[in-house]
Design brief:
19% strand, 3-stranded antiparallel beta sheet, 226 residues
Length: 226
């Protein structure tokens, strides 16, 4: 009752000040904003624009593609990507996610992101690759998807810089004296398994290599165990 009364009073105040929305609409909007802390409950909007680096950086005229809409002019896509004139007083954050294609065929082979949070597909991939916490001698379930090189230190949101960690190991890694760096892994059957070099505050160094997948030879399993 108290919440309804407060919303009613606020709605009546706004309407008397010239707000053209209906009382019920104002009350609903205010309830969402007060509960979520953001206008309309919206914390961000993702608009995916797919274009070549030539279109984005070199002024090429090759059109871009807006998923759900279709082909859009190159100039319009550049303006949207750079957010030169935001539509509101709120500052817009623009993230660039790079998609890598194979020369000649154009087949999509990899992606990374300038965003801080790992996208859901990258999280699932990391979870499948690492299986358990990547800290040496810890086999706890993965709870956090961590940047090996921290994002605030220039680390990328990419598969190579991703590691699955338990909550305790992730918090420990952020304390002074700890350092983690992705390294090239051991080559087996023309594959490189993901490897992390970990340095502790005492100066000791360890290597954590992603566990072998089903189908890996028994020899490689024994080498990893040793």
């Amino acid at each position: 009752v108290a919440v309804h009364a407060a919303l009613t009073r606020h709605a009546d105040s706004l309407r008397s000040g010239g707000d053209e929305r209906a009382r019920g609409q104002i009350m609903a909007d205010d309830l969402v904003e007060w509960t979520t802390g953001t206008p309309g409950g919206i914390t961000g909007i993702e608009i995916q624009l797919i274009m070549t680096d030539r279109t984005l950086f070199q002024g090429d005229s090759e059109p871009a593609r807006l998923p759900g809409y279709g082909v859009v002019p190159a100039g319009w896509a550049r303006t949207m990507a750079r957010a030169v004139e935001p539509a509101s007083s709120e500052e817009l954050s623009v993230w660039v996610r790079r998609l890598y294609t194979a020369p000649g065929t154009g087949e999509l082979v990899a992606m990374d992101s300038r965003a801080r949070l790992f996208p859901a597909p990258l999280k699932r991939f990391t979870q499948a690759r690492d299986d358990t916490c990547r800290t040496p001698y810890c086999d706890a379930p993965i709870r956090h998807h961590d940047h090996i090189v921290p994002w605030h230190n220039g680390g990328t949101t990419s598969l190579e810089n991703a590691a699955g960690l338990c909550e305790a190991c992730n918090h420990t890694k952020e304390t002074p004296g700890w350092q983690a760096i992705p390294r090239p892994g051991p080559a087996r059957a023309d594959r490189l398994r993901h490897t992390i070099e970990l340095r502790t505050p005492t100066g000791h160094g360890y290597h954590s290599t992603a566990p072998p997948l089903p189908g890996t030879s028994q020899t490689e399993r024994l080498e990893r165990a040793s």
